[in-house]
Write a structure and sequence with these properties.
By secondary structure, the chain is of the alpha+beta class. It is built from 16 helices and 11 strands. The strands form 3 sheets. The chain has a 6-stranded mixed β-sheet, sandwiched between helices. Strands 5-11-10 form a 3-stranded antiparallel β-sheet. Strands 7-8 form a two-stranded antiparallel ribbon.
């Protein structure tokens, strides 16, 4: 195992990509006082995941960095942090019942309306549009309208948007990683007040569901979910905490990926024209509205999103705590250490796409959605949504909201160009104050209506 150097910067793992190029598939470093082993390669990740949910404190499990504070802000009763195999299985089935194909299909009209609203507003604006802001607004609207099913007044919508932004931004603060409880965290800090606001909104919605019965929201499906014999359902805290998890997954990661996709499409007008041609053909056959069949027909658009996630996965990877010494690719990882499943490096090393000069990961030379259209060129090592039994439960929702927005965008926008055209000789610049992938400047564009 190679030994690296510490990686500490804005975004706790922002230096990891460079270290991975230098030290290979498996190396050790430190962050926040923890020895962390970066592991890349789908086979290596799967070999480690075989040790997950082992009994008698063996194997590996998830853990919460800064549990004293993040536990209060994020929620300890969410699927992400359950390490008991049986409890995790029950929790995943119950939460997963809100993410089935049927459940997502029922949400499509609401998602479609949110996308159209954003795009129509964009086309009314004559000044340049910052795409990052549009995608944040879009995914936040889905959060309150569909995920939570809130009945917000127009003047309350900005308050909800601000609360989610403050909450998600606060989750990235290194201060929350302190090994002691921060006094007055929920009362005196911006992130604490935002979390209380969101918790109150969810509780109010639960009270309404108890009074009036189920509705079409994702929160309703969580609250009324039961196992096969009806004897087990989520506790109130589990409903609240897992609703928060879906908000985080459905806003931050989707907005990040959509922002990256908008940049790549602007840099590749030939790809953009092919997306438009596909959508115009589908529209001529199916009309304006979407359902799962229409989304399944959007094969090239699906490839665009997958290629975006290959080049720029929203997160660097996932952490696991090593409960007992494990071996991966001939290297021992001692008890008490952490492993990080390195998604970006896994994509970099994929033998089906790898180029010696690194051009396969270049945002201009390497962005080739057509590689996904054939089994002979399709990437073999791709894990932006994780792997194993903890694979992102909101994956289907995220893909649906991304495909619907880009499909409607392609149908309504004939042309869009970057305001600050990026010189072909310069690398794309990325924001340094976030742990999710965000292009610097937020992708400012001008639009021409179709």
């Amino acid at each position: 195992m190679r030994l690296g150097c510490p990686f500490i910067d804005y975004g706790p793992f922002s230096k990891l990509a460079k270290l991975s190029r230098k030290y290979g598939k498996i190396f050790k470093s430190y962050a926040f006082g923890y020895p962390i082993v970066s592991v890349s390669g789908v086979d290596n990740v799967k070999s480690l995941l075989k040790n997950e949910f082992q009994t008698d404190a063996k194997g590996i499990g998830t853990f919460m960095l800064g549990k004293h504070n993040i536990g209060s802000i994020f929620g300890e009763d969410m699927l992400l942090y359950e390490n008991d195999a049986e409890k995790h299985g029950v929790l995943r089935r119950l939460v997963g019942s809100a993410m089935t194909p049927a459940a997502i299909g029922a949400a499509i009209p609401s998602i479609q309306d949110a996308a159209r609203l954003q795009i129509d507003e964009m086309l009314k604006t004559k000044s340049p549009i910052k795409m990052e802001d549009v995608f944040q607004s879009y995914t936040l609207d889905i959060a309150w309208k569909q995920i939570l099913g809130l009945d917000l007044k127009e003047e309350d919508v900005p308050n909800f948007h601000t609360a989610v932004k403050d909450w998600t931004a606060g989750l990235m603060s290194p201060l929350l990683l302190m090994p002691i409880k921060i006094p007055g965290l929920m009362r005196f800090t911006k992130v604490g007040r935002a979390r209380k606001y969101l918790g109150t909104k969810i509780e109010e919605k639960i009270d309404k569901l108890e009074r009036d019965g189920p509705d079409s929201s994702t929160l309703s499906k969580l609250y009324f979910a039961t196992d096969d014999d009806g004897s087990t359902k989520l506790t109130r805290d589990q409903v609240i905490h897992n609703a928060l998890l879906l908000i985080f997954a459905g806003t931050e990661t989707s907005a990040s990926t959509l922002t990256c996709a908008s940049l790549f499409l602007a840099l590749h007008p030939d790809v953009w024209e092919r997306v438009r041609a596909e959508q115009n053909d589908i529209r001529s056959r199916y009309g304006d509205d979407f359902n799962q069949e229409v989304l399944n027909e959007s094969v090239y658009l699906d490839a665009v999103i997958k290629e975006t996630l290959r080049l720029q996965p929203p997160e660097m990877g996932e952490l696991r705590a090593v409960k007992n010494t494990v071996v991966v690719d001939g290297n021992q990882v001692p008890k008490g250490w952490c492993v990080l499943f390195n998604v970006k490096q896994t994509h970099y090393n994929d033998p089906s796409t790898y180029e010696e000069d690194g051009s396969h990961m270049d945002h201009r030379k390497g962005f080739r959605p057509e590689r996904w259209m054939s089994e002979s060129t399709k990437p073999m090592e791709w894990m932006p949504f994780g792997e194993g039994r903890r694979r992102c439960i909101g994956e289907r929702l995220a893909m649906t909201e991304m495909k619907i927005f880009l499909a409607i965008f392609a149908r309504k926008v004939a042309k869009y160009e970057l305001v600050n055209n990026i010189d072909q000789s310069l690398a794309v610049q990325w924001q340094t104050d976030t742990t999710l992938a965000r292009p610097a400047g937020g992708v400012e564009c001008t639009l021409v209506s179709a």
